[in-house]
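Subject: mismatched residue count in predicted assembly?

I count 562 residues in my input, but I want to confirm that the predicted structure covers every chain. Input:
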Amino acid sequence: MRAGSCSRMDGWKSMTDAILPTAALRSRIRRLLQRIGGERQTPIVPAGNVAGRALTTVIAIMTFLAALTVGAVSLVSDTAGRWQNDISDEITVQVKPAEGLDMPTALETVRQIALQTPGVSGASVLDEAATSRLLEPWLGDSVDFDELPVPRLVIVSIDSGEPPNFAFMRQELQEAVPQAELDDHRAWVSRLVTMARTVVLIGVFILSLVIVATTLTVIFATRGAMSGNRQIVEVLHFVGARSSFIAREFERHFLRLGLIGAMTGGVAAVVLFVVIGHLTEANRQTAEADQISALFGSFSIGWTGYAGVALLVATVATLTALTSRWTVTRHLAEIDMISPVES
Amino acid sequence: MIRFENVGLRYDMGPEVLRDLTFEIRRQSFQFLTGPSGAGKTSLLRMLFLALRPTRGLITVLGRDVATLSRRDLPSIRRRIGVVFQDFRLLDHMTTYENVALPLRVRGKEEREYRQDVVDLIKWVGLGERLNALPIVLSGGEKQRAAIARALIDQPDILLADEPTGNVDAPLARRLLRLFLELNRSGTAVVIATHDLGLMEQVDARRLVLEDGRLEIYD
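Triage response: the counts match. Full output below for your records.
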């Protein structure tokens, strides 16, 4: 019994009696007010002990690792999808220099033919400055297009939902500009799709292993923490508590531990992703960040990653609660009217 | 209230540790259960509070054949049987008040309904000053009285006590015995499992003596 509980309880009672019509409703609201007012009985399952803290820590670490894996798989999956989409949204037409070829006219002709082809949403000539930047690693920063026979590109955006007839387009271009070569990136796309799928499959496999490891760790850590509570289960049992009551008390306690641990791990993983995202964003001008951006875009895990982490947190917490319920139920079955032969 | 007919008990494939037990615990009766160590007192107590099934024979508890009881039925019957364990089994994180109130709490009663009853009972067993003490600071005798109060709080029809004076000195043992007698006068059947001959000699009560797995009854 807590000091001062009597006067406080009387206060709650008179307050709720005055405004609430039914006894049942009054009783429920009063209990709620008592809880809000901090007047709570000691929990039947003790709130904090070494085993509970160890369990919370183990859950936090395993959830953190699993959430990192979820985020990484989500990132790779999104990036792979983006590579595939970016490339399949674009094709290029290369115009090789030749004797007597008026390059600007040829590029404009190619652009016009592309724009008139059904399924093409846009076409632009890669200007000399952009072409020069592309060639800079090999030819330096002072490329003279009049002296060097440099091929030029026309970038054609296509509707990936209804792509153009590439064979027809290729033929049209060849007839108008024999030096034009259409590259629909099909070989690239095919290889990238295969690679992306492989990367995602490997990621899912690793994620499965991490989830299995997390599940087993959570189950055994929960059972370990439960073993310290066997006496509580037995006492409750022999003072006449129903199995459902005992299971519910433990389930609630371990759900709380599981939620604290899993949310700590999950939030830490999300914070890490956000921090890395900000760091890559802030250092975008450097060559290293450029490489990362080229591969992973903004290094953001997207809503699927966050949803995956949230699902993981919920799953780990539920798993912890269910394991405690299962352990309690099994222990009760062991001590409940056992046959001496079975024992 | 509780009737045993030709009850036998064996563990696994071993010999019968209890044989042909036939007796009855009558309403408002008072009896000692005694016998040498290993005679089967604890096993018999476990059968009395429905923690163990016999390997043969018939046990009827409060009018119900235990062989036909489902696990769902057990809590409601156990609530009518108070048990005092030899090792007290108090919950270490709860105060004396909370330990004694535990049976009422697990029945879903509101604290305001039982608070005064619990306080009165704790005072009755002489622990009025230890209301908010945790078990760790209680002496053996105080723990024993807290365990007894917990067994009595819901006014059981029958009280089973396993060596309730095993951890206390003689004066306190006499005091506890008076407490059990007073309880018995108020209508509760009492079974005290004990080795303590001195305790039994203080009361002219029925004795159930276990020896070599058999029960002799001295009314």
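Residues 97-178 of chain A form one domain. Marking this ticket as 'not a bug'.
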